[in-house]
Amino acid sequence: MTTRRSFLAAGAVLAASSGSAQDGAAETLPKMKFFQAEISRLVLGVNPFYGFAHYNNNYGNVMREWYTPERVCDVLHRAERAGINAYNYVNIGRSPQDLARYRAAGGRMQLIMQVAAGDDAVALARDLKPLAMHRQGEVVDKAWQAGDMKSIREWCKQVRDLGVLVGVGTHKPEVIAKVEEENWDVDFYAGCVYNRTRTPDEWKQVLHGEIPEMPGEVYIQSDPARMYRVMRQTKKPCFAFKVLAAGRIADRSVEQAFRTAFESIKPTDGVFVGMFPRFKDEVRENTAIVRRVLAKA
């Protein structure tokens, strides 16, 4: 009974929000100038679509099970109708088919694409026509820890020739600081506000000798200020992500987390936020919050 009720409730949330969005005119969100484009300062994240919960396996499986191709496409359209006009796409699994379905139905969000290890950036740029491409934070952080940032710089040089905007993603403020110091030819940064790629030795130092059970999913409250500080110091556009700590922020504190993010970054910066409207209409709630927060900015 509980499962059936949960299923029916989730279906009601999805149907009601889809219907109301379809019946009304498209809404708008505050925008940022991103070189020759104007994009919403709230950019749709990709992780929930494909079960990357960054919480635990059970939660990730729930996301993966719920997000059928039809629901991914529906949420993409709902986000666009709510005023979001950019999507932090990643090429993984069935995501190319989901994107093609969305576009075939008239979807027009710009792609700010994260490029993972092994991805063919040339083919992605040719086939998907993204506005921008950034090397994925996981890839960059591994190169940083291995002392191989030259490989990331070389990748950026290759992407520069593809006619798209070029960026560097990371979970580490020191990476952005170093790229700035060395004056790389890049256009923007994508920074996780929680440094979840610390090494075991770094966690020992931060946690006074303790090692957590899931070191890749530890979120400490002092981290965001460090990333926000670096983002303010660069003149280049930045996108902050995991501003809601991958769902760890309590419902009553979500608006304050958005407020802190936008107050801590530049007017030319934005945020990537993934959404999972399984139990509540996160698309509507998040866009309404961003309108309220930025109306007071």
Give a quick rundown of the structure:
With 297 residues, this protein is an alpha/beta fold.
List keywords for this structure.
globular, alpha/beta, 297 residues, 12 helices, 14% strand, two-stranded antiparallel ribbon, 8-stranded parallel sheet
How would you portray this structure in words?
- The strands form two sheets. This protein has an eight-stranded parallel β-sheet.
- Helix 3 crosses helix 4, helix 6 packs antiparallel against helix 7 and helix 8 runs parallel beside helix 10.
- The chain has twelve helices and ten strands.
- The protein has 297 residues and is α/β, with parallel strands linked by helices.
Task: Compile the SSE list and pairings.
Blueprint: H1 2-23, E1 31-34, E2 37-40, E3 42-44, H2 57-66, H3 69-81, E4 86-87, H4 95-104, E5 110-115, H5 121-128, E6 132-135, H6 137-145, H7 149-160, E7 165-170, H8 173-181, E8 188-192, H9 200-206, H10 223-233, E9 238-241, H11 254-264, E10 270-273, H12 282-295
Parallel strand pairs: 3-10, 4-5, 5-6, 6-7, 7-8, 8-9, 9-10
Antiparallel strand pairs: 1-2
